[in-house]
Specification:
11 helices; single chain; alpha/beta; about 35% helix; FAD/NAD(P)-binding domain; 3 domains; D-Amino Acid Oxidase, Chain A, domain 2
């Protein structure tokens, strides 16, 4: 039986561990923290469902969808001038999941891995492994948020696009089961040190005061993302997955799908002897490039694009299809802008 060592117990590392163990490999996962679910403080994040049917995809790559989740087929977005656009569809735009804690996505994946005989070495720091899944190492964007309990408000998704509120980023409020995750993200490295202050000021917005009135703040949370599309995600014989490879959505931050897929492709590469780089490039490289293309225009035109986007959404239908095209419609013009962005970045 061949032994495989994986460094990092995040989504991509655990997905690889599950699939390798299913094929009879002896798998050992090393994690520097004391447990997999300690990688995040409890907050909500979204599994996007517009480029694919995400639940069917997870089952296809042998991931049980027994983690706590809720699909949302409606979301309300606001422009810098607080014009409102309500996006609706028959099917969910995304599924909210918990990150951090005993009901988290990571906890579910760890249980699945343990049931297959995967061994975990927590508080472990090793040099080198067959699969590197250690997460982002350099910030492209930063998020700071607050998590609330006892929220007397219906389940709801709200987003605000405004450079005053979230410089080159977005602000969101996710209400689910009497709890709320509120976060300010910024794709502007110059204001990272001020982001906590900016976020605290954002909590005074009327929408926040209405939703959070009478609630109890449980904790603050923070994190950063990085996207850097590599020429190759194999380095010195190790396969890099998830954000360790730079696989992240640079547009709206919906990157968990790429973590799952890259972990699965790492497995297929080891088992089948196929090219890992060919697998991930054929699957989602263009989506990653399109997200950078979108980010390029947002960073340049900012609030003008936000106002126009919200205005268009107010009068358009087929919102889910529009989102899919935003990520998947990649042509030669997009490719030119992508390469320009890479030069200027």
């Amino acid at each position: 039986m061949k032994s495989i060592r994986i460094l990092g117990a995040g989504i991509s590392g655990l997905t690889a561990a599950i699939n390798l163990a299913r094929e009879g490999y002896d798998v050992e996962v090393h994690e520097r923290l004391s447990d997999a679910e300690r990688k995040h403080k409890l907050n909500f994040e979204g599994l996007e469902n517009w480029t694919t049917d995400i639940m069917k995809l997870l089952k296809k790559i042998n991931i049980k969808t027994d983690f706590r989740n809720k699909g949302f087929n409606e979301a309300t977005w606001y422009s810098p001038s607080f014009k409102e656009a309500v996006l609706k569809d028959k099917e969910p735009f995304f599924y909210l999941v918990e990150r951090g804690g005993k009901n988290s996505l990571e906890y579910s994946l760890k249980k699945q891995a343990l049931s297959l005989g995967v061994r975990f070495k927590f508080k472990s720091k090793i040099n080198g492994a067959d699969i590197i899944s250690t997460g982002a190492t350099k910030p492209m964007a930063f998020g700071f948020g607050t998590f609330y309990e006892n929220v007397d408000f219906k389940d709801k998704v709200i987003g605000i696009l405004s450079n005053k509120i979230a410089p080159n980023g977005y602000f969101y409020v996710l209400v689910w089961n009497k709890r709320a995750s509120v976060c300010t993200t910024a794709y502007n490295t110059k204001i990272f040190k001020d982001l906590r202050k900016i976020h605290r000021n954002n909590l005074k917005i009327d929408i926040c005061k209405e939703i959070l009135n009478g609630s109890r703040e449980k904790h603050e949370f923070s994190g950063f993302i990085n996207q850097n599309i590599p020429n190759s995600a194999v380095l010195d014989g190790s396969i890099y997955t998830g954000e360790a490879a730079g696989f992240q959505d640079a547009f709206l931050g919906f990157g968990m799908k790429y973590a799952f897929l890259s972990g699965y492709f790492a497995t297929r590469s080891i088992i089948d002897g196929t090219s890992y780089d060919e697998l991930w490039k054929n699957s989602f490289e263009k989506e990653l490039k399109k997200s950078l293309y979108n980010r390029f225009f947002l960073n340049i035109f900012g609030d003008r694009i936000y106002e126009k986007t919200i205005s268009n959404l107010r009068h358009k239908k087929n919102h889910k299809l529009r989102l899919k095209n935003t990520y998947c419609d990649y042509n030669y013009k997009c490719n030119l802008i992508y390469h320009l962005y890479k030069i200027l970045r």
